[in-house]
Structure formats: structure tokens, C-alpha cells
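During the reporting period the student researcher (J.K.) took over the structure-prediction task from the postdoctoral fellow and processed the backlog of single-chain submissions. One of the processed entries is reproduced below for the supervisory committee.
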Amino acid sequence: MRRRQFLTGASATLATPMLLTHRAFAAEPGAPLPIPDVMDIGPGAGNALTAQKGTRAFMSGAASDTLGYSQDYLGPLLRFQRGRTANIDVVNRTDDPITAHWHGMHVPGHLDGGPQLAFAPGQTWSPELPVDHPAATLWYHSHVHGQTADQVYRGLAGMIIVDDPDVDAGLPDDYGVNDIPLIVQDRNFDRSGRMSYDLGMMGVMQGFRGSEILVNGAIRPKLTVPGGLVRLRVLNASNARIYDFSFADGRTFHQVGTDGGLLPAPVARTTLQLAPAERAEIVVDFADRAPARLVSRDVGSGGMMGGGSMMGGSGMMNGGGNSGSTLEVMSFDVGDAAVTAPATLPKTLPSDIRDMGEPVRTRSFRLNLHGGGMMGSMFNTLIGRDGQAMGINGDSYDMNRIDQAVQLNETELWRIDADMQAHPFHVHGTSFQVISQGGRAVDPQQVGLKDVVLVDGPTEILVRFDKRATAETPFMYHCHILEHEDAGMMGQFTVS
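J.K. obtained the following C-alpha cells:
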């Protein structure tokens, strides 16, 4: 297995990236949904992903400065196969250090792409990834401490699909026809139509929320689908916004997958809540050939903070509407394409959920909002010992400190609670089972394997790690409101 490798200067040309021709994107609301190009990642040379600067006219006549992987904004869909090694060269052609974190993948710490693995402009990171993960929808993004929110907001993110050749789930799988990736983000635009990230104090405290909803980099696009079952792989790639998705006509759909892979059986739903970094696979039946609109309730952040940002971060009472109002996400119409999907959903699915056994120890985590300056009177009981803005268990993130030491192949119970508002809690290096959420018991068969859980009250998860992480390249646990992560709401741990 290759350890991390960096190339600089003239040597970096050895890893010449394949620059993808990005399909046409929507410059105005209602244009066709862009479908990301696919990069199949297998063993050997030739797989290159280049972080680069670009421009994108999200609105006509207004070019925004952006970042992307091998294109101007976002990145190609990376396709991995379980059981097959994946070699990839990640090239940095931006002006700042970047990483590529394989969010949700079960890989050792030295391949995870966390903050310790940041590499400078002109360098190339060449990991060899042993793909040992059930079929699932994952994603990748930069994970540089203090810069993650800005870099992801500007476009350093993309979707991953892991295929398992030994599993036939009986689900729609014709990519771009009835198997569709939906990367959902909220973004702000100034009066000239350029994307902006005007992060103010309250934007840091609550997380930045934009006023426009983008899907695959397009504002409220439209997709033409066949008249049958269609699988939508939904990723909440927003910095801080929680979505509560539904169809405007109230139609029922079925959830078939979550962060870590397939559910044991399809679950009928009319709404779907996704916090930042959560994913879900849903199957929608368009056999009635009626047009449909995917919408979301404008969900607040919970606790005393409530919904949108009150100052800065996008202006007074930002958030794309008032909490509880309706956000338009995208629309669907039905075309004449031949239906290639199965006519009905299977009753059971090949889920990877297993009995993790009884936990051998318990750990407790408190996600802290600290305060200072003009906010000190509100948060004077939450000041961190190191004086930084946010933390976990009273300490803000320190790259030189190991916060927890976990044993390989031992099941643990992690209890998580939070100050002031709801926080999506992400654990690197594994998938976990949610036992309770908000103080209420959870059925893992309904929730599935997760790597992000929304902590809105006392929450318990069962975790078990089978990949190692050293003190030089540890795993992270953190809030996935990216502004909170950058402000110190993150810890790191070894697995040995």
C-alpha cells in the first residue's frame, strides 16, 4: 500500500490530470439539471483529480470565482468498486493548502484526507485506497482546518458511489437516467448575481445559510425522468442548512439507503430530513406521469438560536425564508424515454447492518458554543479553557493534541449532547448505529448505518472501528456545520 506521496514543482507534471468536460450547467432557475461526469477509480495510474480555481456564471452575466475538482465548480462523480484497490492522484492547483477527505469511506487514518494530510499548492497526494465499504452513496471534500467552510462553499466537493459487484439490490441503476445524484447546497449571491460568502459573527455562531438552493451547481433546476421508478441519491452538501424534503403534491416515496449503505427494507416516507453531510437514497414512482416539485421546509437550527443568521452571513434574518416556510429545490417532468428500471421495489434489501454486540466502554461528548467579545454576556458560562470560539468537552481543536484513544475492533457507546442548538455530529473511519436521538429510542433497522447524526438533545451511538489511525494521522469527530468545525468544534482520536 502506498503511503501519502507529494510531488512539487516540475515533478508535479508527472501526475497530469484528466480535465473533464463538464456538462452544461443552469445559469438561471428552471434550466436542466446538470448530471456530473463519472470518473471510475480503479487500480493503477491514470486517475487524477485536480483542485483548481475557476469561474461559474450561476446567474446570467455574473461570473463568480469558484473552486472545483477537475472542473470549475464541484467535481466529477467518483465511482469505486468494493474489493478493488483505487489509486488516485489529487493535484493541488489552487492558491492554498487543500485535502480530499473521502467522507464516509472506511479507510485508515493515513488515507482519510483529514486536516493532518493537507498539502500545499503545486503538490500531489497519491493515496492507494483499499475499498472495503458496502454499496453506498458517499462524498468527498476538502478538510483543511480553518478553511473547510470557505473551500467547500466555493466548490471543493463531489459525490462518491461505491458499487458492490456481489450484490444486486434490484433498484434502478441506469446512471443519469433513473439513478440520479442530487448534490443540494444553499448559496448566497450579491446584487450583481455573484456568489458571496459574507461570513459575520452570527454566521459563525449558527453556521452560514444562503438564500438560493442549488442542485448539482444549478439554481432550482428541472429534470426529465422516465415514467417509472427513479432512484435519487440526495446529499446535503450545505455548510449549515438542515433540509426537510418532500414533494409538493404530497406523494409518498421510499427510502432505500442512508449514509452507510442500504436499509434492510424500503421505508415509505412523505418527508425526509437531512442535516449537513447526511445522505439518503430514495426511490420515487413517476408512473402517473405527473410533474412534481421537490421542496423543503425551511428548518431552523434549533435551540435558542432558531432559524437563519441574524447578522452577517447573508444579511438580516437570512435563511432563504422564515423558519417553516417552503424552499423550492427542483422540479421533475416525465419524458418519453423507455422505462428500464424494475417495475416494483424489492421487499427486502441487502443491508450491511450487523449486531455490534454490547459496548465495552462509554464515552461522553459535549458540543460547546463558547462566547467572547460582544457575545460574552450570552455565552459566559461556555467559555473554552483555551479561549477559542467553539469546542468539544470544553476544549477547542488542537492539531497537536490527541483527545481519545480507541481500541481496534471494540464496540463503544458514545453519548453526545450539545449546547444551544442542533449540531450534526460526524465520525471519521467507520459507520455507526444510532441507538437514541433527542432522548428517544431509535430503531437501527429504520435509520440504517450512519456517519452523521443530528444531535438535538441527548444522543447515543454504537461505534466500532476496524481501521487504524495513528497520532500522526488520526481520525476526527466534529460538528459538520462547517463554520463550527473551523471554529474548533472538533476532536481527534487514534485507533490501535
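The committee noted the following: Residues 188 and 210 are 4 Å apart (CA to CA).
J.K. will present the remaining backlog at the next meeting.
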